Amino acid sequence: MKLKTVIPSPIEMDTILVISDYVQALKAEVGEPLRRLYPNAEIRFCLFDGELLNELTSGLLPILILMDMGADNLLIMKELRSFACLSRTPMLMLRAEATKRKVEAESEGIGWLYNTLNTHHQYQLN
């Protein structure tokens, strides 16, 4: 009997990193919509402490980083952008006022998030 080697497609190895001080609340809020948008991606939630460093040094760089809003988090986002390996990784702030207004303007609750993530995903495939 010959065994067949299965190599996972790149999308099956994608990781989306969600960074927040309120991981449990954010899991409940955005976890399910993200899983529907990216069914083959691994959604990882982590805190702004050593856990973030562990995630980033695990060798699996995320295709997208979502961060909770806040002035401190904006500084962290700028620091993350300075690393060459993350300079092209899209980083979005969750719950920012502009994002709230954009989402409210959409007729479908997660329409804006879906369009943004879907556009990014199509860009990654091309």
UniProtKB/TrEMBL annotation:
Protein name: Response regulator receiver protein
Species of provenance: Fibrisoma limi BUZ 3
